[in-house]
Amino acid sequence: MASTQDIHVRGTVPLVSPVDLKQQLPASDESIDCILNSRQMVGKILSGEDQRLMLIVGPCSIHDEKSALEYAERLAKLAQELSDTLLIIMRVYFEKPRTTVGWKGLINDPHMNGTFDIEQGLRRARTLLIQTTEMQLPTATEMLDPITPQYTADLVSWASIGARTTESQTHRQMASGLSMPVGYKNATDGNPAIAIQAMQSSQSPHSFLGIDEQGQTCIINTTGNSLAHLILRGGRSGPNFSAEHVEKAGQAMIDAGLKPNIVVDCSHANSNKDHEQQIPAFRDVLKQRVAGNTQIIGMMLESNLCAGNQSLSDDPSALEYGVSITDACLDWDQTEVLLREAAAAMSQVLGQSASAT
Ligand SMILES: O=C[C@H](O)[C@H](O)COP(=O)(O)O
Ligand SMILES: C=C(OP(=O)(O)O)C(=O)O
Fold it and tell me: Are 157 and 140 in contact (CB under 8 A)?
């Protein structure tokens, strides 16, 4: 009898369970301290109790742990130095949603050669998250595959639902159960409405299919996650970081009964994918915050040790050190200049609000 299933399935490979991977790679006390403290700080920024600016900064994607750790060491030092005015969280992105096809990130294909050793990818992602948080540098990542959080989410302080998945019920359900604050990107067409709807959905309880710590398929019942904000990342119609766009998005959030908390992603369609264009976007949004728009709670930058990007060829060993293999990034020096500018501007803002009270 001809089979009616698995017509397009090449095969399946068993995977380590979340609990076993966590036992093999447990979070240290230093990591747990960093994660709990930083999640609480993000929560206070969302509630308005903490007026510092949240900056989510780092590579578009991680493909080489050595350069990621070198970047993390530099950022951890700067984050500590500027912590009076900025909460800096490192982008440690392991999952890349593609417009069509392409390398889908370190978890999916850690060897970057089409061997898809996902177990090793999960192991390497966990290891890097532990190393980064042990430096007291909190981590931010996009939650793309709904199974992945069981393996990594305990080590993450801030999560994003991307422009391509914010409208997806699967991702909204997943976000409703995540333990950290979540930012929702506007759609790739530039429309923030779906992100606002995502926030309304994911703050509600959901019941859906997933896996438990043992890797057993199960029904997951969530409480809903109200720690949410909108991320403006521009869209097909152009950037959406201007004061008019931010005001309109804030009003739409208020109309939907949400606290208007907005992070502006200076990259993606807000930079027209030209990494240098993140600089004027960042400065414009900073100016809006300094001018008194407290709906702007943060900004995102795509940044790496070296500027630009490079193509992933058949020979990953030929890649240039510290250069993105996905979207183009600012280099470290450009990043440091912007972070110091933000700290100086925010010290004025925070000084004024302290003297007014
Ligand atoms: O942030 C990264 C990219 O913008 C996103 O993954 C889409 O990439 P692509 O259009 O190159 O596939
Ligand atoms: C993929 C990303 O962004 P977006 O969903 O906005 O395209 C990202 O931030 O890496």
Answer: yes
Bridge partners (DSSP) of residue 309 are 324
Which of 168, 207, 204, 199 is closest to 181 using CA atoms? 199
Q: Find the residues whose C-beta lies inside 6 A of ligand 1.
A: 60, 96-99, 102, 268, 326-327
Q: How far is residue 116's CA from residue 106's CA, in Å, rounded to a whole number?
A: 9
**DSSP code of 28?**
P
Q: Express each pLDDT in 150-172 by its tens digit.
A: 999 999 999 999 999 999 999 99
Residues contacting 11, CB < 8 A, separation 6+: none
- Alpha carbon separation from 65 to 79, 92, 150, 310, 318 (Å, rounded): 20, 10, 21, 17, 16
Name the one residue in this structure whose structure tokens are 């703050």: 203
Ligand whose nearest atom lies closest to the CA of 162:
2
pLDDT one-digit tens code per residue, 310-347: 999 999 999 999 999 999 999 999 999 999 999 999 99
Give the number of other CB atoms < 10 A from CB of residue 352: 11
Q: What is the pTM of this model?
A: 0.98
Alpha-carbon dihedral of residues 13, 19, 24, 27, nearest 10 degrees? 130
Question: CA 210, 31, 339, 199: dihedral to nearest 10 degrees?
Answer: 30
For ligand 2, is residue 332 a contact (CB within 6 Å)? no
163 lines ligand 2 (CB under 6 A): yes
Taking phi over 0 as left and psi of -120 to 50 as alpha, with beta for the rest, 158 belongs to beta
**59, 62, 163, 190, 250 from 193: Cα distances, Å:** 27, 30, 12, 9, 11
Is the ipTM above a cut-off of 0.95?
Answer: yes
Tokens of 239: 């950037």
Structural domains of the chain ordered from first start: 18-40+54-164+239-250+262-352 (3.20.20.70)
Q: List C-alpha distances in Å: 334 to 164, 314, 324.
A: 29, 31, 15
Please name the residues in contact with 203: beta carbons below 8 A apart, sequence gap of 6 or more. Answer: 176, 224, 225, 226, 228
